[in-house]
Amino acid sequence: MDIRLERLARLLVEYSNNVKRDDIVEIRGGPVAAPLIEALYRAALQRGALVRTAVGLPAAEEILLREGNAKQVQYFRPTLLADMKEMDCVFSIWAEENTRALSNVDPAQQQLRARALRPLRELFMKRAARRALRWVGTLYPTQGLAQEADMSLADFTDFVFRACKCDRDDPVAAWKEIGKRQERIVKFLKGKKTVRLLAPDTDLTLSVQGRTWENCAGSENMPDGEVFTGPVENATSGTVRFTYPAVHDGREVEDVRLTFQRGKVVQARAAKNEAYLHKMLDLDEGSRRLGELAFGLNEDIQRFTKNILFDEKIGGTVHMALGAAYPETGGRNKSALHWDMICDLRQAGEIYVDDRKVFVNGQWKL
Questions:
Q1: Is the dihedral of CA 18, 21, 23, 29 positive or negative?
Q2: Residues with Cβ < 8 Å from 225, sequence gap 6 or more?
Q3: CA-derived radius of gyration, the chain
Q4: What is the spatial order of strands in the sheet that 134-139 belongs to?
Q5: Residue ranges covered by each domain of the chain
C-alpha cells in the first residue's frame, strides 16, 4: 500500500473524525475507492468503533434520473433517516470515474431528487452543527478526476496527497499548525459587520453581522483550508463575476455573473449552460440567496481542477454558495441547493472588512 494512503486513512480516523470506542461509523464510497475504504475500515476497527460500509454503484443515480418516474425519483429508504440519527461518524469518499455522467440528465429530474432528499440533508446539517455527528469527506484519485483536472493519474495522485499534507511524515501536526494560522483570521473577523469584495466585474457587499466564522482545518473536508460563515440572508447587494466554471451535478456553467438586491439574485447570466443556472436558481425559495461566504487559504492548492473539494480551498480565492446555510454559522437560509462558486482574488482583488482593506491580490494584510 502507498504509505500516503495509509497516512490519509489514519489522518481521517484519528484527527478529522477522532473515532472513539463504540462509535457507530459509516464509510461511503464507490468500488474504485476500495483501497481507501479498506484502510479506513481497518483503522476505525483498531480504534474500537462499530463500522459499516455503504458501497454504491456509480451508474445507479444516472439510471434512476434517466428512467425513473416521479415516485421512484422521490423515493428513499425510510431507514436512512433512522441511520442518520444513529451514526456518530461518517466518512464520504468521492471517486467519480466519469464526472459528466449526469450532464445530459433532465434538470427537472435532478430538482425533484434534490427536493426529496432535503430532509436527509437538513437532519445531517443539524446534527453536524450540534457536533452530534462527526463527518469528513475526501477524494480518491481516479482516471476520470485526473482527466478533468488536465493531469495524469500519477500527477493528480501526488497533487491530492500533497494538498492533504500526506506527503509529510506527520500530517496531523501540519493540520494543527494550519488551524492555528487560520484562527488568527477567524478572531479578526469575529464581531465584524460587513465584507466587501472587489475584483474585475465584481463589487459585492455582504452583511455578516451576528454570524459565526468557522475555522476549517481538516475536521470536515480533506483537504481543507478555509474559514467560512453564513451571510445575512437579506443583505447582500451588488454584482459578482465568478472566475472559474461552476460545476454542479455533471454540468459546467461558465462565466457566471450574478446581481443581488436585498440578498436575492435578481439577474443571472452565464456564457455556457445559462438555462441550467436559471433552473437551479428556481429550485426553491432559498436557492436565490447565499448560504455561505468563505475564504480559501490552502497554499498547497494553486490550480483549478474542476473539483470543488480542492478549488474552493485555493489560497487567495473567495467562494460563495447559493442555497443552504450551515446552521453552526447562524445562517438561516434553507434550500435543497448548496452550490459553491469561486472568485479568484489573486490578481486585482481586494477585500474590505468594515471599510478596512485587509486583503490585496491574494495576500491578507492583518
A1: positive
A2: 178, 182, 216, 217, 296, 297, 298, 299, 300, 301, 313, 315
A3: 20
A4: 50-55, 24-29, 89-94, 134-139, 221-222
A5: 3-169, 180-356
Q: Would the pLDDT of 249 be above 90?
A: no
**Topology at the third CATH level for domain 3-169:** Thermophilic metalloprotease-like (3.40.1830)
Question: Distance between CA atoms of 275 and 21, rounded to whole angstroms?
Answer: 49
Omega of the bond leading into 223 within 30 degrees of 0 (cis): yes
CA atoms within 13 A on the CB side of 263: 19
**How many CA atoms lie within 13 Å of 252's alpha carbon, on the beta-carbon side?**
11
Spatial distance between the Cα atoms of 345 and 242, rounded to a whole number of angstroms: 10
Distance CA 168, CA 107 (A): 42
| DSSP category for residue 311 | H
Tell me the per-residue pLDDT of 98-133, one tens digit each, with 9 for 90 and over.
998 998 999 999 999 999 999 999 999 999 989 999
Residues 6+ apart with CB under 8 A from 108: 279
Number of Cβ atoms within 10 Å of the Cβ of 173: 12
Residue written as grid cell 454584482: 239
Prediction pTM value: 0.91
CA-wise closest residue to 213 among 177, 184, 237, 242 = 184
Element (H, E) at 146: helix 143-148
Q: Whole-angstrom Cα distance, residue 144 to residue 305?
A: 12
Q: Write phi, then psi, for 28 (nearest 5 degrees).
A: -110, 140
Q: Which amino acid is at 202?
A: T
